[in-house]
Design brief:
Elements (H helix, E strand, L loop, with lengths): L1 E5 L4 H12 L3 E6 L7 H8 L8 E3 L5 H8 L6 E4 L6 H6 L1 H21 L4 E7 L23 H20 L2 E7 L2 E2 L8 H11 L2 E5 L5 E2 L2 E2 H10 L8 E6 L5 E2 H12 L4 E5 L14 H7 L7 H13 L8 H12 L17 H12 L21 H13 L9 H13 L2 H18 L7
Parallel strand pairs: 1-2, 1-4, 2-3, 4-5, 5-6, 6-11, 7-10, 8-13
Antiparallel strand pairs: 9-12
Helix pairs in contact: 1-8, 1-13, 3-5, 5-6, 7-9, 7-11, 9-11, 14-15, 15-16
């Protein structure tokens, strides 16, 4: 299939691009790389696949530009993930959310209609349920009130999809995501921001008494549900919850992060924020039955996995945050992260073949770095990466606990030997990190 992913440089979107590539689909992406959070993070997200995926740098508020990107391209499906996200920011800038999330969705739907795209899959949100008392949330509940401009814009987008299905026969599927987390999560979201603050010994802000509950969903589970929509042939217009169907209080979440880091949080307690809901809780029985959705990562497993990826030295290179920091030091804030390691040829046959094989083998998820290593360029010369990491350490900036020769030796070891040796070195490095506690969070 030929697929278009809007918001393809974002947290979920970049993972979805890699997932679709791994499934053998041809993929294009749209993203405007806006400054809602650091664009360098988004550039790093796409660095591993941009040689294989045309990326249209388009603001979806520009209807003409969207139409040019879609019409005549013969897409089989559009995954529409591009949006202005976040409940609290939407209260301060409601017009921006209306223009992007409602008008932008209209532009994509109209382009799909004119471009004869048969399938439109739209990312919605658990926020549309507002403060409903009926738990867990079912897709057939009457939604009479939202409590933030963000939630209102997402519900309006769902209704636009319904219109296009009824009027033009476009198959539309709305997916209500429940608090997605995992590698590349946006830095403003709780799990990411709490992890960073606790790691650095800085206070975290806890809004309310810690009793609010969320249904946290791991990125791998979300991807399984999203891609299942490509073969869904049920109702022409439908909506599904994608969550874990398990709730966790804010206090429990903080405790899990503390345990994973081995450090206690310094908590600043604040009053409840306008627009925040007390609980989200997904009924996923419909998704299980009709999509074959089967979430498997409980939060007790997902949080340690996220923390490990955020602060540990990974096989083949540092965490995403460290790679971004290194890219900035070498090339400036707006640099293309593929250029991080000097002299690497991003279009070489060896590199292209490796990325394609890794995507095809399904190693593009949270644990595999196959489709993300362009930021450190390990394939052409491990020695070059080792020298780069050693050079980073020479700047006297701690590199997540590892300096100079240690980092170089780790890279040589992980790329010069088999899987068992790689695992052993990761274990040694993680133990050493816990023992020394000298690393800093780079972003």
């Amino acid at each position: 299939m030929k697929i278009l992913v809007t918001g393809g440089a974002g947290f979920i979107g970049s993972h979805l691009v890699e997932k679709c590539l791994g499934l053998g689909h041809a993929v294009e992406a749209i993203d405007d790389f806006n400054d809602f959070y650091d664009p360098a993070i988004k550039r790093a997200n796409v660095a591993g696949f941009q040689a294989h995926v045309p990326i249209h740098e388009i603001d979806i508020r520009d209807g003409d530009a969207v139409l040019r990107a879609v019409k005549g391209q013969n897409f089989d499906a559009i995954f529409h993930l591009a949006a202005r996200a976040g409940v609290r920011p939407s209260i301060n800038r409601p017009k921006l959310y209306i223009d992007t999330n409602i008008s932008g969705t209209f532009h994509l739907l109209e382009a799909a209609r004119q471009g004869n795209v048969p399938r439109f899959i739209c990312a919605s949100s658990s926020s549309v349920y507002g403060v409903l008392k009926t738990l867990p949330f079912r897709e057939d509940l009457a939604l009479t009130q939202t409590i933030s401009p963000y939630a209102a814009s997402k519900l309006a987008a769902e209704q636009l999809c319904s219109n296009y299905s009824h009027l033009y026969g476009l198959r539309t599927i709305n997916l209500r995501f429940f608090t997605v987390y995992g590698s590349r999560q946006r830095p403003d979201l709780a799990i990411h921001s709490f992890t960073r603050a606790i790691w650095e010994g800085k206070p975290i802000q806890q809004f309310g008494d810690g009793s609010t509950r969320r249904d946290y969903t791991y990125i791998d589970d979300i991807l399984q549900g999203v891609t299942a929509c490509l073969s869904y042939e049920g109702q022409l217009c439908d909506v599904f919850n994608l969550g874990e169907s398990q709730t966790t209080t804010l206090s429990e979440l903080i405790a899990m992060i503390e345990n994973a880091l081995g450090k206690k949080a310094v908590i600043e307690r604040k009053t409840d924020q306008p627009g925040d809901v007390p609980v989200t809780y997904a009924d996923i029985s419909k998704s299980r039955t009709l999509l074959g959705y089967d979430p498997r990562t409980k939060i007790s497993e997902g949080i340690p996995r996220f923390v490990e990826g955020a602060v540990s030295f990974r096989a083949g290179g540092a965490s995403l945050f460290a790679r971004i920091a290194y890219s900035r030091r070498e090339h400036g804030d707006t640099a293309d992260c593929r250029r991080t390691s000097p002299g690497a040829d991003p279009d070489s046959e060896r590199e292209s073949g490796r990325r394609s094989r890794d995507c095809a083998n399904g190693r593009a998820g949270d644990r595999g770095l196959a489709c993300r290593l362009d930021a450190t360029r390990v394939s052409k010369s491990t020695g070059r990466v080792a020298r780069s990491l050693a050079g980073t350490a020479k700047s006297r900036r701690p590199f997540f606990g590892f300096r100079g020769k240690e980092a170089a030796a780790a890279v040589r070891a992980t790329h010069g030997h088999g899987e068992r040796r790689r695992h052993d070195h990761r274990s040694v490095l993680r133990r050493r990190a816990r023992r020394t506690r000298v690393g800093t969070w780079c972003e």
